[in-house]
Amino acid sequence: MRAGSASPAASREVVVEAERLGRRYGAHAALDGLDLLVERGESILLLGPNGAGKSTLLRILATLLRPSEGRLELFGADPRASDRAALRRRLSLLSHQTYLYDHLTAEENLQFYGRLYGSRPADGDLRSALREVALEERRTEQVRALSRGMQQRLAIARAFLHRPELLLLDEPFTGLDRQGADRLQAMLRDRIHEGATCVLATHDFATALTLATRVVVLDAGRAVVDRPAAGLDPAGLEELYRRSTRSAPSFP
Amino acid sequence: MLERALFAVTAGLVPASLYMIFLVAPTEGKMGVVQRIFYFHVPSAFMAFLGVAVCAVASALYLYRKDRRFDIAAHAGAELGVLFCSIVLITGPIWARPVWGVWWTGEVRLTSTLILWLIYVGYLLLRQNADDRDQAARWAAIVGIVGALDMPIIYKSVEWWRGLHPKVLKISGGGGLDPVMERTLLVCTVTMLGLFSCLFLERFRLGRLRDEVERLEADAARREARGSRSPQPAGVAP
Amino acid sequence: MSYFRIVGLVAWKDLRTEMRSREQAVSVLVFALLILVVFNFAFDFTIIDFRSLGPGILWVAFLFSGVLALNHSFRIEREQDRIEGILMAPIDRSAFYLGKVLATVLFMAAVEAVLVPLAAILFNQTLGGRLGLMFLALVLNTIGFAAVGTLFAAVTTQTRRSEVLLPVLLFPAAVPIALAAVRATSHILAGGPFVYYAHWIYLAAAYDLVFLAASVLLFDYALQD
């Protein structure tokens, strides 16, 4: 496991830099004074009780939401000021919403998103993407004919199709069976090995710890813990979590 | 300071115009006393257009600059636009009925005003149905701008639809309007402008106060949330 | 991919979905047909000349069914937050807008192509060669309807009471093209020369251009955050 934040910061590109990030919904602050620095190649395990702001943070990083206050830079650029299209091409969000179109086939969904992201995926590329999530035989079936687990797998294929450098994952293991979860874990490990940066919010501590280089715990919109993952096992992680947040961990 | 002065001036103008409307302006030959409603009807129409214009310009500025004040101004403009449109739409039929025997003539200007009223009532409804304040501001701005862009096209299309019709009164382009009537109309228009401005400034101030209250509530909520958070300091790598 | 390829891509997605599910086409057609039928009962066409009322009736049918189509178009994007997939994509959002407009126009044109002959049958009219011209006039106005409608629908489908808000906002704004459509098709039905209704065609074209341009500029604000 890489010791992420122990290496000198200057040697690595900063992928995410958030300073005093805040996001309000009316009177409620989902994020409040969040600081976060993520370098290329790191994989952050994002933890926190419900309502702590994990999803909000991921959505802000995905440029779906704009922060109400604070500073954010993605790949060294302010999403508000610079070429957003170029930034968006480099990242990807995988959440429990699949963003798939029910009446298009698995293949057509990937075609659509592939083209949306600027490439013209050849048949071969689509097939190998589907093969990686074990959906090649179902490629001509409409999404509404696929089970929830298959849809989630297709969503994974969609998220990885354009080779994003920053992977944002919000509870991606939900809806996956053991095989699917293993497959996703392997895919993530491959991408991280290839140099992708990863921010993963999940309750699946065991799986996540095999991938994470750093653990960040959010509570009430702020980072209360930010430390390397080295030396943590699931029990230790649970203990850390319990100690640092007010509420009990919300396990499925 | 400006508000007070404006209020004083307007307060003075209102009785002055009422005096002129009822005691100074001559009675029109064909229509009789009811024609005096013209002095309410026409300036209201001008103010309705002014409200719409304010709304559109403020909306565009809001989208460009995202300054809350522009949004409040746009909202105020739309509300006043609807208010004065309503006055036009009420005084129109009241005037038309005794003169032509019908409530609604489908006259070009009145019809266009009705459509304008509908668009900006829609604007207000949209604002009511949007939960998030910034979203409401942005969406309303879109409608405000589209509505204003649409106005000349609506006007033209209704004009062509109805065919060219005899003018109600020779109002536009001089000729035919008694000079005393003209003067009365002018005074009334200025009075209406004064009323518009007073209402606008008051409404603007109200909007700002509302924002301030929201901001204070948000701050209080935030302080409460911070206070009840875990006492552990933000972890640093050991 | 280039801007216009994205426009085509979005339109392809919508139309492909529609062809597969057909739920939209059937309900819109049936709804429009019902409106025609209601009008058939509402007026005594043995006395009234259809040609004076017909264009108006047709356009009422298109307006209402068009609102259905617009609502449906965005409801698909709202369900399961699919719109977020679009929002995160590295595209110009106005290209998404134009794609939606294109899909709506093509869809409504198909509805119009079915409904006009049906109306002719229902109201015992012979339209002959003027059918094509009438269809073109309708499509020209449909473009304007879709231009403003798509912009407004993007907004209203995010509010509560979206089904009511869209017509409330759209119908007054669409008055110019409603008038232009009815007058132009009236003249065409009556066999009048182009010069009789040329100004209506120009008005519709101007409306289309103004609001396509305005919406391209404004659309991003409808979807932000």
In summary, what is this structure?
The complex is a heterotrimer of chains A (252), B (238) and C (225). With 238 residues, chain B is mainly alpha-helical.
Provide the descriptors you would attach to this structure in a database record:
heterotrimer; A: 252 residues; Rossmann fold; 6-stranded mixed sheet; 3-stranded antiparallel sheet; 33% helix; 25% strand; B: 238 residues; mainly alpha; 6 helices; 78% helix
Mean pLDDT of chain B: 84
CATH superfamily of the largest domain in chain A: P-loop containing nucleotide triphosphate hydrolases
CATH topology term of the largest domain in chain A: Rossmann fold
How many separate domains of chain B? 1
Number of domains of chain A: 2
Helix-strand category of chain B: mainly alpha
Helical fraction of chain B equals: over 70%
- Biggest sheet details of chain B: none
Label the CATH architecture of the largest domain in chain A. 3-Layer(aba) Sandwich
Would you report the number of β strands of chain B? 0
Strand content of chain B: under 5%
Task: List how many beta strands of chain A DSSP finds.
Answer: 9
Q: What string, H for helix and E for strand, traces the elements of chain A in order?
A: EEEHEHEHHHEHEHEEH
Shape of chain B: globular
> What distance lies between the first and last C-alpha atoms of chain A, to the nearest angstrom?
27 Å
Rounded Rg of chain B: 23 Å
Rounded mean pLDDT of chain A is 86
Structural class per helix/strand content of chain A? alpha/beta
* Overall outline of chain A: globular
Main sheet characteristics of chain A: 6 strands, mixed
Which regions of chain A have little confidence, pLDDT < 50, spanning 5+ residues?
1-5
